[in-house]
Design brief:
InterPro entries: GTP_cyclohydro_II, RibA, RibA-like_sf. By secondary structure, the chain is of the alpha/beta class. The chain is built from 14 helices and 13 strands. The relative contact order is 0.12.
């Protein structure tokens, strides 16, 4: 019946539940796993989870486990056994590296080896997609409690593997400092996720490679003028070049913090203040270096009628991902602006570890 939510809609609800601190239940055949995000877990719900017949365990990513020197028997994740005197402070200390240096974890963390971790793996994927820290307090259940969102595992994995279709909602003229003849188009995904924007400068011909930039949202750099990165000058520089050429498309992708969200990016910044570089900070939080999905950039260009681009970037991964997603990149146009004493080490790390071209 069409009035019943489908798997995509349920996943979107589940993200909201987890962000509020409400557990959700993952179901695969006759297996059920109740999942709570550690970062939003209240003392009452924590007590309720501990009172379940099956003792909960803590799922963290392999990256976080590596930092904590825990054995990740499940490969890309570890299921950590809760100590007898577990409390929320302990859980938060395992989930969040903020105090790793000040208060190193006492005693070795014991990880589970038996059983299967596939539902735990899905739980961590869902938490990442909700822009929460990837640490989940999970327990097996015999049946789904009334009122909690119930997620069917396989359709949800399939949805997370695909990029949600994006639809144009509205476009209007917005004259810019760098290009008076500009329009802003808003695109909305079907899965209730973030909207993305396209700034179209002039009217670029659809049958020629378009001067394009895939810009990832950076609130600190784009809006506040932060000197910690080069995003603000890159945004202005790309628009200026498109203005000079009289044509171009700047895609503004709401993938803040290389896809980890602003709260996690600020956690990464605190770790950088403790001496870790941008890549190490992501890993200590439990994320990969870059959690972005550039397929949506290609999808937007196609939706606008383009098949090829001259891409303004220093990031070869972006070019590879665009090509794989069906947009021919005929030229890489370098975008070298905004280096300053505060971001020099950050830019050097990206060149050394993330393959950015100097
Ligand atoms: N996680 C994390 N994200 C950051 C950090 N500094 C900037 N960002 C984010 O990184 C993204 C910008 O990506 P960049 O790596 O600068 O550039 P790029 O888009 O990969 O490549 P270019 O096309 O060459 O600019 C934005 O989403 C920023 O919010 C950081 O220290 N940690
Ligand atoms: Zn930035």
């Amino acid at each position: 019946m069409s009035l019943i939510p489908d798997a995509t809609e349920i996943l979107s609800r589940a993200r909201a539940d987890l962000r509020m601190g409400l557990p959700v239940v993952l179901v695969d055949g006759d297996r059920c796993l109740i999942v709570a995000a550690v970062e939003t877990l209240s003392p009452d719900r924590f007590a309720d989870l501990c009172a379940l017949p099956d003792r909960p365990h803590l799922a963290i990513t392999g990256r976080r486990a590596e930092t904590l020197k825990a054995r990740a028997y499940d490969g890309d994740l570890a299921r950590i056994v809760l100590p007898r005197d577990v409390d929320l402070t302990w859980l938060n200390a395992v989930a969040d590296p903020a105090d790793d240096l000040r208060k190193p974890m006492k005693g070795p963390l014991v990880a589970l080896r038996d059983g299967t971790a596939d539902l735990d793996r899905l739980a961590l994927r869902i938490l990442k997609s909700a822009r929460l820290l990837p640490a989940a307090l999970n327990a097996s259940l015999a049946q789904v409690p009334a009122g909690l969102t119930r997620i069917n595992a396989q359709p949800t994995r399939d949805i997370l593997d695909q990029a949600s279709p994006l639809h144009p909602i509205v476009g209007a003229r917005v004259p810019l400092l760098s290009a008076e003849n500009s329009r802003l188009h808003v695109f909305r995904p079907e899965d209730g996720g973030e909207e993305h924007y396209a700034v179209e400068i002039g009217r670029p011909p659809r049958d020629k490679p378009v001067l394009a930039r895939l810009h990832s949202a950076c609130f600190t750099g784009d809006v506040m003028g932060s000197l910690k990165c080069d995003c603000g000058p890159q945004l202005a520089g790309a628009l200026a070049q498109m203005g000079q050429e009289g044509a171009g498309v700047l895609l503004y992708l709401n993938q803040e913090g290389r896809g980890i969200g602003l709260a996690n990016k600020m956690r990464a910044y605190s770790l950088q203040d403790q001496g870790f570089d941008t890549v190490e900070a992501n890993h200590r939080l439990g994320f990969e270096d870059d959690e972005r999905d550039f397929r949506l950039g290609a999808a937007l260009l196609k939706e606008m009628g383009f098949t090829s681009a001259r891409l303004l970037t220093n990031n070869p991964n972006k070019i590879a991902m665009m090509e794989r997603a069906g947009i021919a990149v005929t030229e890489r146009v370098p975008l070298k602006v905004g280096e300053n004493p505060h971001n020099a080490a950050y830019l050097a790390t990206k060149a050394a570890k993330s393959g950015h071209l100097l």
